[in-house]
Amino acid sequence: MSYLMSLMSPTWTAFLRLFAATTEDYWQEIATKWLITTLVVAAVCSGVMLAVKWVLKRNAGAVNTWSRGRTLLFIVIGFIPVLLGAVLIFLTNTQQFQTEIGTHSLCVGIFFSWVNYVVFMVFGHLGPWRGDLV
Asked: What is the pLDDT along the chain (134 residues), one digit of tens a residue?
């Protein structure tokens, strides 16, 4: 893994620096793990929210097109599980991990999760639910 880290561009290194508060030699590995964790949290939460929307629309019976406002509210409500998921993973890790990530990087990770969650939800609406967003 350290060989791959040595091949990274300065831009990627600066981006990774947002995800770790430590100055240890292995900070890039810690930042990469936290970055991947935030991506997984966003993907899982968007998958769950899309599944909930599918169940709600299926149980509604006839063709049920949601308004744009209802869809956007549904997406915004999904910020709560993303926040809880990221904080829960952060708090259930070791004290050393929490120290190496730090509060600032926790907030950056939550924001990054939210951005990715919105992107995943928009892509999830490109199929048959396109009319709910447009």
From this structure: 555 555 567 776 777 767 777 667 777 788 888 889 999 999 999 999 999 988 888 887 766 777 888 889 999 999 999 999 999 998 888 888 778 778 888 888 899 999 999 999 999 888 777 777 76
Q: In Å, what is the CA distance from 71 to each residue of 14, 55, 66, 115?
A: 35, 14, 6, 17
Residue 16 and residue 1: Cα distance in Å, rounded? 15
C-alpha angle 68/44/36, rounded to 5°? Answer: 120
CA distances from 90 to 31, 55, 102, 103 (A): 13, 30, 10, 10
| Residue 46 · residue 81 · CB < 8 Å | no
Query: Considering the entire predicted model, what is its pTM?
Result: 0.82
The span from the first CA to the last CA of the chain, in angstroms, equals: 43
